[in-house]
Design a protein that fits this description.
The chain is an alpha+beta fold and about 120 residues long. About 20% of the residues lie in helices and about 35% in strands. Strand 6 and strand 7 form a beta hairpin. The protein starts with 7 loop residues before the first strand and ends with a helix.
Length: about 120
């Protein structure tokens, strides 16, 4: 299982990679593996603001549908159109090309309260 150490994680299996006041958000390798083949990304939240833990969209896979939640308070600046057109990108590269949204964080300090790679690994077992 791939768990990069340069990003933070949520207990609901989202990841966040911070770049200044902005961040990329996606689902973890574990989550995409559990979901199976991703067929559709249902995220139309560009320009909307969400609170930490609030659902900003859903991922439809062959096995199930899963809600995707905000790891921190923020505004959705961009939705990954490539991933919307081809959900398999999320399966192939969940931490890279398969990012889901780019956000502007309202409270960057919230990132410190998220899980690091070691803590995330513990909740998967």
């Amino acid at each position: 299982m791939n768990i990069p150490t340069n990003i933070k994680y949520t207990e609901s299996h989202e990841w966040i990679k911070v770049n200044g006041n902005e961040a990329f958000v996606g689902i973890t390798d574990f989550a995409q593996n559990e979901l199976g083949d991703i067929v559709f990304l249902d995220v139309d939240s560009e320009g909307e603001t969400f609170q930490q833990g609030e659902e900003f969209g859903a991922i439809e896979a062959t096995k199930t549908v899963a809600d995707v939640k905000m790891p921190v308070d923020g505004e959705v600046l961009e939705v990954n159109e490539k991933a919307k057109q081809d959900g398999s990108i999320i399966n192939k590269d969940p931490y890279g090309e398969g990012w889901i949204i780019r956000i502007k964080m309202n409270n960057p300090a919230q990132v410190e309260g998220l899980l690091d790679a070691a803590a995330y690994e513990k909740i998967m077992h």
